Amino acid sequence: MNHQAGPSHPESPKRLEAIYAMLEERDMAEIFQKVPVRRAEREELLLIHSPEYVDRVAATEGRDFTSLDPDTATSSGSYEAALLAAGGLCQAISMVMSGELDNAFALVRPPGHHAERSRAMGFCLFNNVAIGARYAQESYHIKRVLVADWDLHHGNGTQHSFENDPSVLYFSTHQYPYYPGTGAIQDAGGGQGEGFTVNVPLSIGNGDGEYVAIFETILKPIALEYKPELILVSAGFDIYKNDPLGGMGVTPKGFAGLTRSLMDIAKECCGGKLVITLEGGYDLTGLKDSVKKVLNELAGLSETEISTIISQTSQNKIHNTAKQVFQIHRKYWKNLSI
Ligand SMILES: [Zn+2]
User: How far apart are CA 92 and CA 97, in angstroms?
Assistant: First the structure.
Protein backbone atom coordinates (compact mmCIF):
# COMPACT_ATOMS: atom_id res chain seq x y z
CA MET A 1 0.00 0.00 0.00
CA ASN A 2 2.99 2.32 0.47
CA HIS A 3 4.11 1.98 -3.13
CA GLN A 4 2.92 5.01 -5.09
CA ALA A 5 3.67 4.84 -8.79
CA GLY A 6 2.77 8.50 -9.38
CA PRO A 7 -0.37 10.64 -9.49
CA SER A 8 -3.29 9.07 -11.41
CA HIS A 9 -1.21 5.99 -12.20
CA PRO A 10 -3.50 2.98 -12.87
CA GLU A 11 -1.33 0.69 -10.72
CA SER A 12 -2.40 2.40 -7.49
CA PRO A 13 -2.83 1.39 -3.84
CA LYS A 14 -6.59 1.60 -4.49
CA ARG A 15 -6.31 -1.81 -6.16
CA LEU A 16 -5.35 -3.53 -2.90
CA GLU A 17 -7.73 -1.32 -0.89
CA ALA A 18 -10.61 -2.67 -2.99
CA ILE A 19 -9.44 -6.28 -2.57
CA TYR A 20 -8.80 -5.98 1.17
CA ALA A 21 -12.25 -4.38 1.69
CA MET A 22 -13.82 -7.30 -0.20
CA LEU A 23 -12.04 -9.73 2.14
CA GLU A 24 -13.75 -8.04 5.10
CA GLU A 25 -17.24 -8.56 3.68
CA ARG A 26 -19.45 -10.90 5.64
CA ASP A 27 -19.28 -13.81 3.18
CA MET A 28 -15.48 -13.67 2.98
CA ALA A 29 -14.28 -12.75 6.46
CA GLU A 30 -12.64 -15.50 8.54
CA ILE A 31 -12.68 -18.07 5.74
CA PHE A 32 -9.09 -17.68 4.65
CA GLN A 33 -5.83 -18.20 6.47
CA LYS A 34 -3.52 -15.21 6.28
CA VAL A 35 0.03 -15.81 5.18
CA PRO A 36 2.45 -13.83 7.39
CA VAL A 37 4.27 -11.51 5.04
CA ARG A 38 8.05 -11.14 5.07
CA ARG A 39 10.69 -9.23 3.14
CA ALA A 40 12.47 -11.08 0.37
CA GLU A 41 16.12 -11.73 1.22
CA ARG A 42 18.75 -10.16 -1.01
CA GLU A 43 19.88 -13.67 -2.04
CA GLU A 44 16.34 -14.41 -3.19
CA LEU A 45 16.24 -11.29 -5.37
CA LEU A 46 19.63 -12.26 -6.80
CA LEU A 47 18.17 -15.55 -8.04
CA ILE A 48 16.66 -13.42 -10.84
CA HIS A 49 18.09 -9.89 -10.69
CA SER A 50 21.59 -8.44 -10.97
CA PRO A 51 23.21 -7.01 -7.82
CA GLU A 52 23.52 -3.59 -9.51
CA TYR A 53 19.82 -3.51 -10.27
CA VAL A 54 18.82 -4.54 -6.73
CA ASP A 55 21.05 -1.72 -5.44
CA ARG A 56 19.40 0.74 -7.86
CA VAL A 57 15.91 -0.10 -6.55
CA ALA A 58 17.15 -0.08 -2.94
CA ALA A 59 18.54 3.43 -3.48
CA THR A 60 14.98 4.72 -4.12
CA GLU A 61 14.03 4.03 -0.51
CA GLY A 62 13.02 7.20 1.32
CA ARG A 63 12.94 9.29 -1.89
CA ASP A 64 9.61 10.82 -2.88
CA PHE A 65 9.89 10.07 -6.58
CA THR A 66 12.31 8.16 -8.80
CA SER A 67 11.55 7.31 -12.40
CA LEU A 68 13.01 3.91 -13.37
CA ASP A 69 11.24 3.51 -16.72
CA PRO A 70 8.68 5.61 -18.67
CA ASP A 71 5.85 3.62 -16.99
CA THR A 72 7.50 2.75 -13.69
CA ALA A 73 8.30 5.07 -10.82
CA THR A 74 8.85 4.64 -7.10
CA SER A 75 7.91 6.48 -3.92
CA SER A 76 9.65 6.38 -0.55
CA GLY A 77 7.95 3.09 0.41
CA SER A 78 8.27 1.30 -2.92
CA TYR A 79 11.42 -0.68 -2.20
CA GLU A 80 9.98 -2.13 0.97
CA ALA A 81 6.66 -2.87 -0.78
CA ALA A 82 8.55 -4.67 -3.53
CA LEU A 83 10.49 -6.72 -0.95
CA LEU A 84 7.22 -7.63 0.79
CA ALA A 85 5.57 -8.56 -2.52
CA ALA A 86 8.35 -10.96 -3.52
CA GLY A 87 8.87 -12.19 0.05
CA GLY A 88 5.16 -12.66 0.64
CA LEU A 89 4.87 -14.78 -2.46
CA CYS A 90 7.89 -16.87 -1.35
CA GLN A 91 6.28 -17.34 2.06
CA ALA A 92 3.02 -18.47 0.43
CA ILE A 93 4.97 -20.90 -1.76
CA SER A 94 6.79 -22.25 1.26
CA MET A 95 3.52 -22.89 3.14
CA VAL A 96 2.01 -24.67 0.13
CA MET A 97 5.15 -26.74 -0.51
CA SER A 98 5.29 -27.82 3.12
CA GLY A 99 1.62 -28.81 3.06
CA GLU A 100 0.52 -26.19 5.58
CA LEU A 101 -1.81 -24.72 2.97
CA ASP A 102 -3.55 -26.41 0.03
CA ASN A 103 -3.04 -23.41 -2.25
CA ALA A 104 -2.56 -19.66 -1.94
CA PHE A 105 -3.08 -16.29 -3.57
CA ALA A 106 -0.49 -13.56 -2.98
CA LEU A 107 -2.47 -10.31 -3.06
CA VAL A 108 0.53 -8.07 -3.53
CA ARG A 109 1.82 -5.11 -5.48
CA PRO A 110 3.89 -3.90 -7.25
CA PRO A 111 3.31 -6.57 -9.91
CA GLY A 112 6.32 -8.38 -11.35
CA HIS A 113 6.16 -10.14 -14.70
CA HIS A 114 7.62 -7.30 -16.83
CA ALA A 115 10.67 -6.82 -14.56
CA GLU A 116 13.86 -7.89 -16.32
CA ARG A 117 17.13 -9.03 -14.75
CA SER A 118 18.54 -5.49 -14.71
CA ARG A 119 15.57 -3.29 -15.50
CA ALA A 120 12.26 -2.11 -14.06
CA MET A 121 9.49 -2.15 -16.64
CA GLY A 122 5.73 -1.87 -17.06
CA PHE A 123 4.82 -1.04 -13.42
CA CYS A 124 7.08 -3.88 -12.15
CA LEU A 125 10.14 -3.63 -9.88
CA PHE A 126 11.10 -7.20 -8.94
CA ASN A 127 9.83 -10.20 -10.87
CA ASN A 128 7.86 -11.81 -8.05
CA VAL A 129 6.75 -14.94 -9.89
CA ALA A 130 10.22 -15.62 -11.32
CA ILE A 131 11.80 -15.17 -7.89
CA GLY A 132 9.11 -17.48 -6.48
CA ALA A 133 9.85 -20.19 -9.05
CA ARG A 134 13.59 -20.13 -8.31
CA TYR A 135 12.96 -19.95 -4.56
CA ALA A 136 10.79 -23.07 -4.78
CA GLN A 137 13.46 -24.90 -6.75
CA GLU A 138 16.25 -23.89 -4.37
CA SER A 139 14.34 -24.53 -1.16
CA TYR A 140 12.40 -27.65 -2.06
CA HIS A 141 14.65 -29.26 -4.68
CA ILE A 142 11.93 -29.52 -7.27
CA LYS A 143 12.83 -30.01 -10.91
CA ARG A 144 9.78 -28.70 -12.75
CA VAL A 145 7.74 -25.54 -12.13
CA LEU A 146 4.94 -24.38 -14.41
CA VAL A 147 4.32 -20.63 -14.60
CA ALA A 148 0.98 -19.83 -16.23
CA ASP A 149 0.42 -16.16 -17.09
CA TRP A 150 -3.08 -15.03 -18.02
CA ASP A 151 -2.33 -11.29 -17.66
CA LEU A 152 -3.37 -9.15 -20.64
CA HIS A 153 0.29 -8.42 -21.32
CA HIS A 154 3.13 -10.79 -22.14
CA GLY A 155 5.44 -11.46 -19.20
CA ASN A 156 8.68 -10.56 -20.96
CA GLY A 157 10.71 -10.65 -17.77
CA THR A 158 9.48 -14.09 -16.80
CA GLN A 159 10.07 -15.50 -20.28
CA HIS A 160 13.59 -14.07 -20.42
CA SER A 161 14.39 -15.48 -16.97
CA PHE A 162 13.68 -19.05 -18.05
CA GLU A 163 13.78 -19.25 -21.85
CA ASN A 164 16.90 -21.43 -21.86
CA ASP A 165 15.84 -23.52 -18.90
CA PRO A 166 13.62 -26.60 -19.09
CA SER A 167 13.09 -26.60 -15.32
CA VAL A 168 10.54 -23.78 -15.62
CA LEU A 169 7.83 -23.99 -18.25
CA TYR A 170 6.41 -20.56 -19.08
CA PHE A 171 2.94 -20.43 -20.65
CA SER A 172 1.38 -17.09 -21.55
CA THR A 173 -1.81 -15.85 -23.16
CA HIS A 174 -1.65 -12.17 -24.10
CA GLN A 175 -3.11 -9.46 -26.31
CA TYR A 176 -0.84 -9.18 -29.34
CA PRO A 177 0.59 -7.11 -30.88
CA TYR A 178 0.58 -4.96 -27.77
CA TYR A 179 2.80 -3.83 -24.90
CA PRO A 180 5.55 -4.98 -24.30
CA GLY A 181 5.89 -6.35 -27.86
CA THR A 182 7.36 -9.73 -26.91
CA GLY A 183 5.55 -13.08 -26.87
CA ALA A 184 5.38 -14.05 -30.55
CA ILE A 185 3.96 -17.49 -31.18
CA GLN A 186 7.31 -18.64 -32.63
CA ASP A 187 9.17 -17.83 -29.39
CA ALA A 188 9.43 -21.29 -27.88
CA GLY A 189 12.64 -20.96 -25.86
CA GLY A 190 16.19 -21.87 -26.82
CA GLY A 191 19.03 -24.26 -25.98
CA GLN A 192 18.05 -26.73 -23.28
CA GLY A 193 14.87 -24.71 -22.81
CA GLU A 194 13.59 -25.14 -26.36
CA GLY A 195 9.91 -26.06 -26.20
CA PHE A 196 9.50 -24.91 -22.61
CA THR A 197 8.17 -21.44 -23.51
CA VAL A 198 4.63 -21.48 -24.86
CA ASN A 199 3.19 -18.24 -26.18
CA VAL A 200 -0.44 -17.85 -27.18
CA PRO A 201 -0.79 -14.36 -28.67
CA LEU A 202 -4.41 -13.26 -29.06
CA SER A 203 -6.33 -10.55 -30.88
CA ILE A 204 -8.74 -8.41 -28.87
CA GLY A 205 -12.23 -9.62 -28.05
CA ASN A 206 -11.54 -12.97 -26.40
CA GLY A 207 -13.76 -13.74 -23.44
CA ASP A 208 -14.54 -16.43 -20.86
CA GLY A 209 -15.15 -19.26 -23.33
CA GLU A 210 -12.06 -18.61 -25.41
CA TYR A 211 -9.71 -18.21 -22.46
CA VAL A 212 -10.91 -21.31 -20.63
CA ALA A 213 -10.90 -23.32 -23.87
CA ILE A 214 -7.31 -22.25 -24.56
CA PHE A 215 -6.25 -23.38 -21.09
CA GLU A 216 -8.07 -26.70 -21.54
CA THR A 217 -7.00 -27.34 -25.15
CA ILE A 218 -3.44 -26.03 -25.19
CA LEU A 219 -2.09 -25.69 -21.65
CA LYS A 220 -3.61 -28.82 -20.14
CA PRO A 221 -2.10 -31.44 -22.52
CA ILE A 222 1.33 -29.78 -22.31
CA ALA A 223 1.16 -29.46 -18.52
CA LEU A 224 0.03 -33.07 -18.01
CA GLU A 225 3.02 -34.21 -20.07
CA TYR A 226 5.42 -31.83 -18.28
CA LYS A 227 4.20 -32.91 -14.83
CA PRO A 228 5.05 -29.79 -12.82
CA GLU A 229 5.75 -30.21 -9.11
CA LEU A 230 4.34 -26.73 -8.44
CA ILE A 231 2.15 -24.38 -10.46
CA LEU A 232 2.58 -20.62 -10.16
CA VAL A 233 0.18 -18.20 -11.80
CA SER A 234 0.71 -14.62 -12.93
CA ALA A 235 -2.89 -13.53 -12.53
CA GLY A 236 -3.62 -10.30 -14.35
CA PHE A 237 -7.15 -9.02 -14.17
CA ASP A 238 -6.59 -6.62 -17.07
CA ILE A 239 -8.28 -9.18 -19.35
CA TYR A 240 -11.50 -8.20 -17.52
CA LYS A 241 -14.16 -6.93 -19.93
CA ASN A 242 -14.13 -3.32 -18.70
CA ASP A 243 -10.43 -2.93 -18.00
CA PRO A 244 -9.22 0.50 -19.12
CA LEU A 245 -5.96 -0.92 -20.55
CA GLY A 246 -7.23 -4.00 -22.35
CA GLY A 247 -9.48 -5.23 -25.11
CA MET A 248 -10.52 -8.62 -23.75
CA GLY A 249 -13.92 -9.71 -22.45
CA VAL A 250 -13.33 -11.96 -19.43
CA THR A 251 -15.88 -11.81 -16.58
CA PRO A 252 -15.48 -12.96 -12.96
CA LYS A 253 -16.96 -16.32 -13.96
CA GLY A 254 -14.22 -16.73 -16.56
CA PHE A 255 -11.53 -16.15 -13.93
CA ALA A 256 -13.15 -18.84 -11.80
CA GLY A 257 -13.03 -21.15 -14.83
CA LEU A 258 -9.33 -20.47 -15.43
CA THR A 259 -8.64 -21.16 -11.76
CA ARG A 260 -10.59 -24.42 -11.91
CA SER A 261 -8.67 -25.49 -15.02
CA LEU A 262 -5.36 -24.89 -13.23
CA MET A 263 -6.61 -26.61 -10.07
CA ASP A 264 -7.49 -29.67 -12.15
CA ILE A 265 -3.98 -29.74 -13.61
CA ALA A 266 -2.43 -29.21 -10.17
CA LYS A 267 -4.53 -31.99 -8.69
CA GLU A 268 -3.39 -34.40 -11.36
CA CYS A 269 0.31 -33.41 -11.32
CA CYS A 270 1.32 -32.13 -7.91
CA GLY A 271 -1.23 -32.73 -5.19
CA GLY A 272 -3.01 -29.45 -5.93
CA LYS A 273 0.03 -27.24 -5.27
CA LEU A 274 -1.04 -23.96 -6.86
CA VAL A 275 0.09 -20.46 -5.88
CA ILE A 276 -1.39 -17.45 -7.63
CA THR A 277 0.11 -13.98 -7.57
CA LEU A 278 -1.49 -10.68 -8.53
CA GLU A 279 -0.18 -8.93 -11.63
CA GLY A 280 -2.32 -6.33 -13.49
CA GLY A 281 -6.00 -5.37 -13.38
CA TYR A 282 -7.08 -1.75 -13.31
CA ASP A 283 -10.89 -1.69 -13.14
CA LEU A 284 -11.39 -1.72 -9.39
CA THR A 285 -14.84 -3.33 -9.41
CA GLY A 286 -13.76 -5.96 -11.92
CA LEU A 287 -10.59 -6.63 -9.94
CA LYS A 288 -12.40 -7.07 -6.62
CA ASP A 289 -15.21 -9.24 -8.05
CA SER A 290 -12.82 -11.40 -10.05
CA VAL A 291 -10.33 -11.95 -7.22
CA LYS A 292 -13.27 -12.98 -5.04
CA LYS A 293 -14.31 -15.63 -7.58
CA VAL A 294 -10.74 -16.94 -7.80
CA LEU A 295 -10.49 -17.16 -4.00
CA ASN A 296 -13.81 -18.98 -3.71
CA GLU A 297 -12.67 -21.45 -6.32
CA LEU A 298 -9.33 -22.01 -4.53
CA ALA A 299 -11.15 -22.55 -1.24
CA GLY A 300 -13.55 -25.06 -2.79
CA LEU A 301 -16.54 -22.83 -2.01
CA SER A 302 -17.46 -22.97 -5.68
CA GLU A 303 -16.73 -25.54 -8.35
CA THR A 304 -17.09 -23.90 -11.73
CA GLU A 305 -18.27 -26.06 -14.63
CA ILE A 306 -15.58 -25.65 -17.25
CA SER A 307 -17.59 -27.36 -19.99
CA THR A 308 -20.48 -24.89 -19.63
CA ILE A 309 -18.13 -21.93 -20.08
CA ILE A 310 -16.44 -23.48 -23.10
CA SER A 311 -19.74 -24.38 -24.77
CA GLN A 312 -20.52 -20.66 -25.10
CA THR A 313 -17.65 -20.02 -27.48
CA SER A 314 -16.97 -20.39 -31.17
CA GLN A 315 -15.13 -23.67 -31.63
CA ASN A 316 -13.68 -22.45 -34.93
CA LYS A 317 -11.86 -19.58 -33.30
CA ILE A 318 -10.33 -21.88 -30.67
CA HIS A 319 -9.47 -24.47 -33.28
CA ASN A 320 -7.52 -21.91 -35.32
CA THR A 321 -5.57 -20.63 -32.31
CA ALA A 322 -4.80 -24.16 -31.14
CA LYS A 323 -3.74 -25.23 -34.64
CA GLN A 324 -1.17 -22.45 -34.86
CA VAL A 325 0.27 -23.21 -31.42
CA PHE A 326 0.29 -26.96 -32.13
CA GLN A 327 2.26 -26.38 -35.35
CA ILE A 328 5.07 -24.85 -33.31
CA HIS A 329 4.89 -27.14 -30.30
CA ARG A 330 3.91 -30.53 -31.72
CA LYS A 331 7.55 -31.54 -32.00
CA TYR A 332 8.12 -30.94 -28.29
CA TRP A 333 4.95 -32.38 -26.79
CA LYS A 334 3.62 -35.85 -27.68
CA ASN A 335 0.20 -34.97 -26.25
CA LEU A 336 -0.28 -32.36 -28.98
CA SER A 337 0.16 -34.81 -31.84
CA ILE A 338 -2.83 -36.94 -30.90
ZN1 LIG B 1 -0.97 -6.55 -17.55
Answer: 9
